[in-house]
Amino acid sequence: MQSAREIWLLHFPSMRRVALSWLPISRLEVCVAPLLLIAAVMSTVACVDKDQSQKLMKSFETGPQHPDEAPKMLNKELPFHYPQALFAKKLQGNVTLRLYIDRDGHVRPDSTQIVESSGYAAFDSAAIRGSQELQFVPAKTKGEPQPVTILFPVYFRFPGAPPLPGDTILKK
Predict the structure, then answer these.
(1) H/E/C letters for each residue in the chain?
(2) Domain that holds residue 124
(3) For residue 113, what pLDDT is reported?
């Protein structure tokens, strides 16, 4: 059985120098820890049969599967609300979200992430809040609903303000 120190070193090898300064670890334990990690990885690899290893290699070669049909947004109006304080200052911004859409077409709020921030916390928060109200027809592969992760841009634009760089791609 491994000691807590050995487990700690296995999971945090970059902290070895720090660990040596405050944990009473012998030099033998520091030398043996990487060998234990290699042995653990090798034993895990040895548990995979030939068919499983071929499937694994094929998945690395092809990358993630894309659905036959992309998800389609059902919302008639976008649920994103311009933060009043930023509207008063005529500020604009873009937020890019990573959304996980489940088999039922619902956005999982706990999986929503900001991929690219606007630089304004209020825009970022408004984008996250609004994303929770999005509804989709789920993505499909061979007619079956499939969960997917998508990048979803949110644009906050003040009416009459000059365009931001990159706005030429937006439909007017």
Answers:
(1) CCCHHHHHHHHCHHHHHHHHHHCCCCHHHHHHHHHHHHHHHHHHHHCCCHHHHHHHHHHHHHCCCCCCECCEECCCCCCCCCCHHHHHCCCCEEEEEEEEECCCCEECHHHCEEEECCCCHHHHHHHHHHHCCCEEECEEECCEEECEEEEEEEEECCCCCCCCCCHHHCCC
(2) 72-169
(3) 96
Parallel, antiparallel, or unpaired: how do β-strands 136-137 and 139-141 relate?
unpaired
Place of tokens 């841009």: 153
Give me the amino acid identity at 94.
N
pLDDT at residue number 23: 39
Q: What is the CATH number of the domain that holds 140?
A: 3.30.2420.10
| Helix axis angle, 27-46 to 4-11, nearest 10° | 70
**78 and 161 housed in the same domain:** yes
pLDDT digits (tens, 9 = 90+) for 104-129: 999 999 999 999 999 999 999 999 99
Low-confidence ranges of the chain (pLDDT < 70): 1-65, 168-172
